Each structure stands twice: as structure tokens, then as C-alpha cells.
Amino acid sequence: xxxxxxxxxxxxxxxxxxxxxxxxxxxxxxxxxxxxxxxxxxxxxxxxxxxxxxxxxxxxxxxxxxxxxxxxxxxxxxxxxxxxxxxxxxxxxxxxxxxxxxxxxxxxxxxxxxxxxxxxxxxxx
Length: 125
Description:
Order of helices and strands: HEHEH
Helix content: 55-70%
Number of domains: 1
Strand order of the largest sheet: 1-2
């Protein structure tokens, strides 16, 4: 159960951080030459895979990922360029914001349900 709670909290944290990055992109939509940033979920997946010991029984299996541990990695988005050199696409940023907000809320709700199960077990009902 604790593995599930840990995984849910890390995923919720990822989406919370991504919302902050996207909000920064939207806030800088009128800043000349601003390059939008994003957080990549594959980076979160790699850091989770680092922690697990994968069993390789075949030489074709993938080895453990050996990248240095870090928090979420911000990457620059290279999309269209506005007349002032700004690369923020408001519609795309709003779509990502909606997706990330929804995923964060889903993870938070899942955590809430897991804790209510734990509370039920502790109370002995």
C-alpha cells in the first residue's frame, strides 16, 4: 500500500510542478523572445525506474537506467515563433494546463481514497 501512496504522491507532485511551469509560460506570453518550458513525464518515469531493481533474465532485456538522480527536468519547447520572437502558443499552453490540472486532481483524489482506506483499517470498522 505504501508503494502505491508513494507513487501517487510523486505523480501528483510532477503534475503540480508542471502546472507551475505552464502558468509561467502563460504569464510570459507577451514577453519578447521568451521560450516556453515544459516538464517531461518520461523523466519522472526514468527516475522511478532507477529505484527499482529490474531482473534481467535475457540479454535482450533493458538494463536499469543509470542517469543521475534529479528533480523534474525542464525542457524548452520549440514551436512557432510570433512576430516578436515569442514562442508561446496560448491554445497549446491552456490545453496542457487543463490536462495537468485534471491529472493532479485525479492523483489527489486517489490519495484521498487511499488514506480513507487506511483510516478505516486503523479504526477497525
